[in-house]
Amino acid sequence: MVESSICLTLLWVFYLVFLRNDTLHGRNRWFLIASMIFSAVVPLLELRISVNGAVMPPGGMASLLLPGTVVTQSSASGYTPSLIVLLPVMYIAGLAVSVALLTAFPLWLVKLSLSGKREGKIIRVPSQDHMCFSAFGHIFISSSVPADRAQRMISHEMKHISLGHHRDLLLAGLITALQWFNPAAYLVSRSLRALHEYEADSRCITEGEDIHSYQELILASVFRTPVTLFSNSFSKYSHLKTRFTMMTKKRTGGFSSLKVAVALPLALILLFVFSCKERSGAKTEAAPAVTEIEAPAEVFTDVEEMPVFQDDTTHHAFMNWVSANLRYPEEAAKQGIQGRVMVQFIIDEQGNVTEPKVVQGADPLLDQGQPLI
Predict the structure, then answer these.
(1) Are the beta carbons of 43 and 270 closer than 8 angstroms?
(2) Which terminus, N or C, of the chain has the lesser number of Cβ atoms within 10 Å?
């Protein structure tokens, strides 16, 4: 999720700087959709590359972004969960809250549907509060909206449905729920809804709506419609200024689409950083077919297949194990001594840990503590 949020943030910044002011709304819309899909898929890929030296640490980018295990005085009195242990709990709790908030809107729609009068994809709601919006491929409009205005508003919302904007919002809602901690996820969703309005406005004007009359209709219909991740509203106050600007702005030339090509190097860099795994040039020899394997005279620091603790390539299991089994020196605890001790060790062919030694100490009392391995 951390890597995915970084990808999405950088791609949204690219959109903000290079594409947002263009009138090629369809192109911008597909760029944001592709950005969400790309950011979700790239961290899940595992592409192998051959290198002679170390480009990334064994844990990949996650080992640089996520915290490691730190020896502190609190370990003396018992096991204290580290941040790396608490992160999954915090994420799941936030995800549960985010899903609960998103679920509230569909439930409200069900209530409106049951109370309203259905006319195909149009549901006329018996309400004195004027509202008109589309969600999940249906149009919800108050029965109190005058007939002449209602027809033009419905025409606008039909453009959203025909263009498949409700499917975009479902994807954006899923990404926002998964990345509830990432502000860029909400900004991408907001930008996507704005593009939906630009596209629908452009279609309406192309089909004969007078720009000035259309703008007056929008101004006269600033409804208090709930703004959610899953709906397109005919008139949202936050989008009025930019919608009017886009209606009268000079059309962007076709060559402007070449700016999207500038995003390719960025995408390749993100693919390399988050998906490529190193394959060292050093080769390991096949083990002899005997019952007992003798330790090799030469120790490899770069091998084709790195050892993994408990089959966990993220190294979370190893850090959790260290946190749970760490024995803090009593004298160091009494004196309030704490710090980070870096230990080097060798893993043989059978997975045994041998020759542990301190390569960077913090204090003699900590450096000479009882090793875990």
Answers:
(1) no
(2) C
Q: Please give, one letter per residue, the 3-state secondary structure of 143-203.
A: CCCCHHHHHHHHHHHHHHHHCCHHHHHHHHHHHHHHCCCCHHHHHHHHHHHHHHHHHHHHH
Q: How far apart are CA 361 and CA 341, in angstroms?
A: 5
Please check whether residue 5 is in contact with residue 184, taking contact to mean a CB–CB distance below 8 angstroms: yes
Beta-strand relationship, 231-233 and 138-142: unpaired
- CA 320, CA 234: separation in Å to the nearest integer? 51
- For the four alpha carbons of 128, 132, 134 and 139, in that order, the dihedral sign comes to positive
E strands, 234-352, are 276-280, 342-347
User: Helices 25-41 and 2-14: crossing angle, nearest 10°?
Assistant: 160
Determine the Cα–Cα distance for residues 307 and 312; give it in Å rounded to an integer.
10
pLDDT digits (tens, 9 = 90+) for 168-206: 999 999 999 999 999 999 999 999 999 999 999 999 999
Q: Which residue's structure tokens are 């509203």?
A: 233
Give dist(CA 125, CA 41) in Å, integer. Answer: 40
Q: Residue 104: which of 276, 230, 205 has the closest Cα? A: 230
Residue among 234, 230, 236 nearest 109 (CA): 230
1-59: pLDDT as tens digits: 888 999 999 999 999 999 988 889 999 999 999 999 999 999 888 776 655 544 555 45
Residue with tokens 């990949």: 60
Measured between its terminal Cα atoms, the distance across the chain in Å is 32
156: which residues sit within 8 A by CB, 6+ positions away?
200, 201, 204, 234
Q: 47-51 and 132-135: which strand pairing?
A: unpaired
Give residue-wise pLDDT tens across range 235-272: 666 677 888 888 888 888 767 778 888 888 888 888 88
- The amino acid at 4: S
Alpha carbons 7 and 4: distance in angstroms, whole number: 5
Q: How far apart (Å, rounded) are the C-alpha atoms in residues 282 and 50?
A: 10
pTM metric for this prediction: 0.67
